[in-house]
Write a structure and sequence with these properties.
Distance between the termini: 34 Å
Number of helices: 10
Number of strands: 20
Strand content: 25-35%
Shape: elongated
Radius of gyration: 25 Å
Length: about 350
């Protein structure tokens, strides 16, 4: 093992070693290997049924792996019950006790741990203030909004100062505006407290906006692990390219050192083959385009989808044969150029942004 490998291993708070989970004849997780560093905010991202929640439950001890090991802080916790593992957890459904006050909900883990009453009171006051709800200690969950209940659930999870915070789709039951507000509050709180955090989500925007690293999962395997920028800009597979963000997918052919898409020719290394081109809408430019620029083609607008400050604009072009492209254009640009359905438009591809699978 190199010094760099030793340093990285020493920094790991959590290690998953060849985790496999079978349900009868169905394999939900296929030999998952993953390391999570101290203080990281990691998102498990993927569609429903990909295995992300099962993996989180195995980390928590709420589900038992068929094979493999879970290590936390250099300790093998693979067979330990949940009560003997060092984590706090927040569920999608809040899971607050309706018959207990906010203060008693937050204090629940401390009371079970037989913490002195004075320390419990002090810790509860600190946490209720930390999640932005001072003065709500005497209220009951039914008197709080969904977002407020989730803040209290977060405070309860942090009460025992766990080494690991697990979030199981904590925002999916909230409305859109509350989700955006609370995800930023969770991220700010995590950075302030410094607790290593794993959040399960199927919302790509959520993962991209808060995570240090994203673990993209599909059919029980990890497709890619990387920073949000890596995942978005350098997808490792067609699934990642298609699942994370919006993307154009066009049939293409690699031949003679070129990528051929309709009449367009783009330099491309590799053996001759049939391929599929993946290109983000923002990587097709309407400006700036100068005389003599390469990879420019004439198109016409077929559909405009208004999304506020910018629009999804579907275009067609003889250069693309029957294929269509979606590009992003700002509302200001559309107005300045008096563009509407049927308007001609010059566009330029950015070859360095094209991914070929």
């Amino acid at each position: 093992m190199s010094r760099e490998d030793e340093r990285v291993t020493a920094d790991l708070l959590l290690e998953l070693r060849r985790i496999r989970k079978d349900f009868g004849g169905f394999t939900a997780l296929h030999d998952i290997d993953l390391g999570i560093r101290q203080g990281e905010f990691v998102c498990f991202l993927g569609p429903s049924g990909c295995g992300k929640t099962t993996l989180l439950r195995i980390i928590a001890g709420l589900e038992v792996q068929t094979s493999g090991e879970v290590w936390q802080g250099g300790r093998n916790i693979s067979t330990l019950p949940p009560a003997q593992r060092d984590y706090g957890i927040v569920f999608q459904s809040y899971a607050l006790f309706p018959n207990l006050s906010v203060a008693d909900n937050v204090a629940y883990g401390l009371v079970n741990g037989k913490t002195p009453k004075a320390e419990i009171h002090k810790r509860v006051m600190e946490l209720v203030k930390l999640v932005g709800l001072p003065g709500s200690e005497g209220k009951y969950p039914a008197q709080l909004s969904g977002g407020q209940q989730q803040r209290i659930a977060l405070a309860r999870a942090l009460a025992t100062s766990p080494g690991l915070l697990l979030l199981d789709e904590p925002l999916s039951a909230l409305d859109a505006l509350e989700r955006v507000r609370l995800r930023q509050e969770i991220r700010a709180l995590q950075q302030k407290v410094g607790v290593t955090t794993i959040m399960v989500t199927h919302d790509q925007e959520e993962a991209l906006s808060v995570a240090d690293r994203i673990v993209v999962m599909n059919h029980g395997v990890i497709e890619q692990v990387g920073t949000p920028m890596d995942i978005y800009r350098e997808p490792a597979s067609p699934f990642v390219a298609d699942f994370v963000g919006k993307v154009n997918v066009l049939p293409a052919k690699v031949a003679g050192g070129e990528l051929r898409v309709g009449a367009l020719r783009i330099p491309c290394e590799g053996a001759d083959r049939e391929a599929r081109l993946y290109l983000r809408p923002e990587d097709v430019l309407a400006r700036p385009i100068a005389d003599g620029d390469p990879h420019v083609f004439d198109a016409s607008i077929e559909k405009i989808e208004f999304l506020g400050s910018y629009c999804h604009v579907k275009v067609g072009s003889p250069a693309l044969d029957s294929n269509k492209l979606t590009v992003y254009l700002s509302l200001n640009y559309l107005s300045e150029q008096s563009l509407e359905v049927g308007s001609p438009l010059k566009l330029k591809l950015l070859p360095e942004r094209i991914k070929v699978f």
